[in-house]
């Protein structure tokens, strides 16, 4: 199965990991799902895929690819994402962990 980086190794891949506070799993999922449509419409967004843990349904990951660091920076400043950032203390157990990657193989 092809991935976005098969055709463009210069894409910036981002993996964002978060864990819901106990009892907040459904709330977190709803808020994350609300980010998908506006983000996918943003300039520079190649894909923005939400995943949920199979061993722990309170763990969520976004797997994202962006055309550039600048496009990611613009995404991070959008109103929908800034709204979500304001909800982090209420919804997350621990920190939002963001890892930026470049495909090498």
Automatic annotation (TrEMBL):
Classification via Gene3D superfamilies: 3.30.70.100
GO molecular function annotation: monooxygenase activity
SUPFAM superfamilies associated with the record: Dimeric alpha+beta barrel
Protein name: Quinol monooxygenase YgiN
Organism: Pseudonocardia sediminis
One family name in Pfam for this protein: ABM
UniProt keyword list: Monooxygenase, Oxidoreductase
Record-annotated ABM domain positions: 12-101
Keyword Oxidoreductase among record annotations: yes
